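Quick one, T. Sequence first:
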Amino acid sequence: MDKQSKIVLISGPTASGKSNFAVKIAKKIQGEIINADSMQVYKNLKILTARPNKIEQKDIKHHLYGVIDLNKKFSTGQWLELAIKKIKNIKKKKKIPILVGGTGLYFQSLINGLVKIPEIPLKFRNKVRLMSKREGQKKFYKKLLKLDPKVKDKFDPNDTQRSIRAYEIKSYTDISMYDWLARTESEFKNNDFLKLYIETKREKLIERINLRTLNMINGGAINEVKKFLKLKIRKDQSVNKVIGIAELTQYLNHEVTLDEAKELISIKTRQYAKRQATWARTRMTSWKKIKPTRIDDFVKRLNKSLLKLDQWAQLQLDCSNG
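Structure tokens:
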């Protein structure tokens, strides 16, 4: 197994050109690509999830794309287990694993490990959710601080989801969520990774998002949604979060025009891109930022030998200029 080469991680907001970047790097350094996008793991929805097409996958081996049935739940822990196996198998072939996607939680679990919190019964979790709803966020957060003072200043007091999660963990396990986090360990060292984040200007990204939406509609997204609806997937399944399903369903039900559906898809995609950028700003501070205009130059100057752990320090690439 090639234990001396780095594992390449590529992230960035949706529509920033991650997949294309990954393919360029893979061709240059004999890499294989592993999916790190929580929606691209699902079968069937190739167009709406912008899964790499046959041309992009032709010369480079791609893993964990379209492998999960639409009616199955798929957790971060399940992804991590599969991704680690793929990384090890790729390294055995003396190739470079390249993980690409926009799901920050996947990358976080790979780099830092996954918190092994005991499973909390649904009945208990629903009880906490009901309390949160009854009390209102302001009062509920005060209750949380009394229960677990360690959460103070750790996240926005208005963040309902994280407040609920922190409350249920502390009340059920009698251990603070942040003590659980401190126990977390990864299979890898931080130095094992080359972490690259595509940083795109907002205006340019909006252009790319609008173009992607148009290409999806022209490429068969409506038929894809028609087929999806026939499967009668339960509403609580994660796959329903795929952007475009709800909007094109509205169009098919004659609730909005096609132009309105396109606009709704673009708006929701922009909102998603904004959330990804916020995650990156707060949780991906150590990642090398690279502008789209510098990608070709970066790939040109990169070679497999420079990905050796003991030689990486010699590589000085200015990713942020240009």
